[in-house]
Amino acid sequence: MLAAICAELSALPKEPGNNKGYALFSAARRLSGSPASVVEVKLCGITETWHGWSRAKALRTIRRGHSPSSRFQQPLSSGAPVIDPQVFAQIWQLSVPILQDAFCYAALIDMKLSSDPTHAIDQIVQQNLARALEPGVSLPSCASFGGKAWPSIGYALILLLWAPRGRVAGIRARYLGTPKPNRPKSISPKGAKLTGLVMMNDAARRWSKRQYAPREIDIVEGESDFLAHAIRHPNRAIIGVVSGSWTEKWTRLVPRCCVVNILTDLDPSGDAYARKIQRSLERAGVTCRRWVGYDD
């Protein structure tokens, strides 16, 4: 049904008029049984070719038609919401390089990811490790927290999350504002799963696709440590983990001849991550080293 409805909308004339607002509303209503994230991506892509239609206007119309009772996600039988992977790519495409956003640039300087902050940001841009969401950008409804779009409340730095075999399967937004109670450092789109997803630099992605066999793999914890380590060691295979990231699927990808360096935080949660990863890898015959700091 989605393909047929998209074909109908695409056939409408591009110039203003022709009752396109009602056509879009009706299309969204007919697709009320499909995940909102999928509907928004597909229908907004069509309206971008219509003269006089902004993305914000299209989203308002789609959401009124698709979810008059505020039901924006169609649940699976298990109760877990569905988010089409295209949504993560869409959010990434709506972002800009760090150098184009003064807020993100200044915040990353303050994070002291490297002794040379300018070089650090250049490396983030060159390696495409993270990007910035500018204020006012129109994002899918799942990219919000407390009913507000991510960048409007400080979640302006985004990093992609990857599944085994180098497939984009998630996105992570990092808070860059003044710390506030009950506001997490990082969040993902509403309804998105984190289990089995990691951050990776280019070398790690090539490894996960079986295009490269590293002698060592470094595992760090969280967005800031991932960025800092990737800046310092651009040619090493680097993986960033959060809660639930490491699964047996990742273990099976690691060759026995590889040494895995675990550099998670030296605190209870970091130690728990390290124990889980180390046990899994050692059962598979992989050598692990639990480091207590960064070595050059």
Question: Top keywords for this entry?
Answer:
four-stranded antiparallel β-sheet, 16% strand, 296 residues, alpha/beta, 11 strands, single chain, five-stranded mixed β-sheet
Explain the overall architecture.
- It is built from eleven helices and eleven strands.
- A five-stranded mixed sheet has the order 7-9-8-10-11, sandwiched between helices.
- Helix 1 packs parallel to helix 3.
- The protein is α/β, with parallel strands linked by helices and 296 residues long.
- It is globular, with a radius of gyration of 21 Å.
- The N and C termini lie far apart (55 Å).
- End-to-end Cα distance, whole Å, is 55 Å
- Gyration radius (Cα, Å) is 21 Å
Structural class: alpha/beta
Mean pLDDT: 86
Strand content: 15-25%
Q: Helix and strand string, N-terminal first? A: HHHHHHHEEEEEEEHEHEHEHE
State the strand order across the main sheet: 7-9-8-10-11
Number of helices: 11
Sheet with most strands: 5 strands, mixed
Helix percentage range: 25-40%
Give the low-pLDDT segments: 68-81
Number of strands: 11
The shape is: globular
